[in-house]
Amino acid sequence: MKTRRPKSWRPAYLLLGACSSCYLLFFIWYDCGVSVQVVPSFSRGSRVGTGLRPPQTRFDTLRLTTEQCEATFPGLTKDLNDTVSLGPFNIQPSGDGGPLQVKIEDGQLFIFQPNRTDALSPELLDAQTATLHQLHRAIITSPAPLPDTIITVNVNDQPFGSAFSYTRPAFRPAPSGSHGPPLTRAFLMPHFSFWTWPLPSIGSVSRVAAALSAMESQVPFRSKDHRLAWRGTMGWNSPHYPGLRENLLRVTEQAKWADVQALHGYGLEAPHNTNASEEFNSMRSNALMIEDFCRYKYVLYTEGITYSGRLQFLQMCRSVLVSPPIAWLQHSTHLIKPLFSSDILILPEPKGWQPYEGVDEAWPVHYPPEEANAVFVSPDWSDLERIVAWLEENPGVAEGIAERQRELFVGKGYLSPAAEVCYWRALIRGWSEAGEYESHDWGDRETVSWELFSLGHDSGKSR
Ligand SMILES: *[C@@H]1O[C@H](CO)[C@@H](O)[C@H](O)[C@H]1NC(C)=O
Ligand SMILES: *[C@@H]1O[C@H](CO)[C@@H](O)[C@H](O)[C@H]1NC(C)=O
Ligand SMILES: *[C@@H]1O[C@H](CO)[C@@H](O)[C@H](O)[C@H]1NC(C)=O
What we know:
Keywords: Membrane, Transmembrane, Transmembrane helix. Residues 145-438 form the Glycosyl transferase CAP10 domain. Pfam families: Glyco_transf_90. The chain crosses the membrane at residues 12-30. This is Glycosyl transferase CAP10 domain-containing protein. The protein has 463 residues and is an alpha/beta fold. It folds into two domains: 66-189 and 416-454, no CATH class; 219-411, Rossmann fold (3-Layer(aba) Sandwich). Helices cover 32% and strands 13% of the residues. It has 15 helices and 16 strands. It has a six-stranded parallel β-sheet. Helix 2 (66-72) packs across helix 13 and helix 4 (122-140) packs across helix 13 (417-434). The longest helix has 22 residues, at 10-31. Mean pLDDT is 83; it is low at 1-51 and 267-280. The site of one 2-acetamido-2-deoxy-beta-D-glucopyranose (NAG) has 5 residues, from helix 3.
């Protein structure tokens, strides 16, 4: 027997219907190229992927076509294109304990049955889930069909063969270090924090973007704390720059120009080794909310064993990003235009520091102060105090560098939801262009649909 819907539901249905039509209409309207009001900064309350609320700016829409993506975010996929142009490679089934593999077929996402002998840590599992959600979001919002392909997704901090990866070394450990991470053909994917990073001091990129828009519109650069800010742990030593963190604490001890502190407790820096429990985090009394770094004029970025997941957050600040030459690339790293301290400081003998072979290859272009959007300093920090003093003496230059960073990553939307899905779709296309596989290697391997997998059903019948 059919049940009848109670009458009182009707208004809700009508409302839902009306909203859905507006939503559809919006996209048709947009896709027809009718200009919509474009606010060139991240709208404050915007949330993505939640359904009924239409995007407020073109940086919130997830439906840009390939042409619109390339016109809106020129250069976004440069590193990806370079990786594709390394030429074809073979996609092999990863063995037991190897990275997860997924299949895109007719615009749907399937997961190959993972056969891990070692369980992923809770943090890695969160990263994996977030990343698969991001991939799925980019697929289902694609205005044009995406190619069928099989993708290896590596959520570890270290790159692994040919795979989607959060990071890849920019150069070998220096100078002429013989061991260290191999240079691999990792296809850089957007960090999982674009979905969310479940740490109390961080959250999602869009949460931080909204918090920052509120703060940055009220605190002009000149009124910010004039010091260089950093928090971190001592535990993560960089293969590229050994002793980096200990030396940092040494040169900034008691310094009036720096607010640099080792975190009480342990963690934060290397995402997957952290203890993410709230209790644990609140024990770190000197931790800063990630957006509060941007209340300082100068924000210091340090890598550790591998990349630091803070980069995309610090890139949204109207603050001067200061870092040793970045040794671990992420998907937005190539947009950095560094001013090298060694190009502007007149240092006593021995004359400053000279970027060495690996750094020169990874960062061949030195930008002048009026074009740069970040500052690279010596990894031994010998010039750190002088560069902060120089920037304080040249406040117009400092503000320009800070402004160009925020203008690119926020004003031009390079870290926006729109740019993220544009990038994912380019990544899928680029990967499938270079990646080749033999169907007989894959034919009898079981898959499970993403919809089932996302509910925790990683075994059983496919589809
Ligand atoms: C990357 O490659 C695509 C496809 O070949 C091309 O359309 C796009 O312009 C390239 N982008 C960059 C930044 O080189
Ligand atoms: C999964 O791993 C176990 C242990 O290494 C192995 O015995 C089994 O054959 C594997 N299963 C598949 C489907 O590869
Ligand atoms: C995380 O921290 C809590 C509280 O200190 C502790 O009980 C727990 O064992 C820690 N977990 C891990 C994986 O270290």
